[in-house]
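Quick question, first post here. What does this chain look like in 3D?
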Amino acid sequence: MEAGSHETAQTMKFLQEALADLGGALGKRRIWFALASEDISDQHRRTSLGPFWLLINYLIFVGTFVFIMGRSEGIPNYTAYVALGLLVWFYIMETMNSGVGLFVREESFIKGTTLPLSIYVFRMTAQALMRAGYAALGCVVLLAISGVDLSWYWLWSAAAIALIVFVTPAAIIIFAFLGAYFPDSQFIVQNLTRIGMFLTPVFWAHTSAGDLSVRGIFYYWNPFTYFLEIVRVPILSGDAPLRSFALCIATSLAAWMLALVLLGRLRRQVVFVL
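> Answer (accepted):
Ran it through. Tokens below.
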């Protein structure tokens, strides 16, 4: 009984410390927002078009998939389908790939300062959002060109994007600790995200409910499918995918619980494994 109470008290202490770390980082939002902006500028400082290469890169990918796969898939308004799919997938992919190496990249700052660990998490979140903003601009243009009608259902997609943004720091925390404690995971995650784009319905669709074919398994048992659906379905089908929303909300809350536990338990120890 006493052991159980002690464990509960320890867990609550860790959660409080994790929340304090997040709160401290939010209080220094000017720092991580400025650093994120500087990161984007530095990465494109020597180019003529600057960050607009992010937009061009997105449009090239959409155009390539539409040109190669458009006729074979037979999906109505395939350009808009791919545009929305790639918008979400590129954001997810960047969050995972950049997150898994975050603490390793920031080793010198983590060891040399007493800043909250979450500052680096929010810095990367802001950076990912800024990058996605250029792709979102291209996506809106492609939706307009494709003749997608503006409707109230777009508010469901806006809520879906808000949910994805909400879970982003939690995902980064999880992958950052994974990368810090298991360095090989950086290469594993990078390869999985490359393969994952083809195993996730980014540019292909599946409509046969209950189908246990290979495509059906990858569609229904892939958690990323539902994050794509909650953004794409309201805009393209004029429907609210409530089941997918419920699954995504549950996944997001579970991710935050795991992230808080990891942050509370390991934030002081991570400096010794870098």
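The two ends are 37 Å apart (CA to CA).
Residues 60 and 197 are 16 Å apart (CA to CA).
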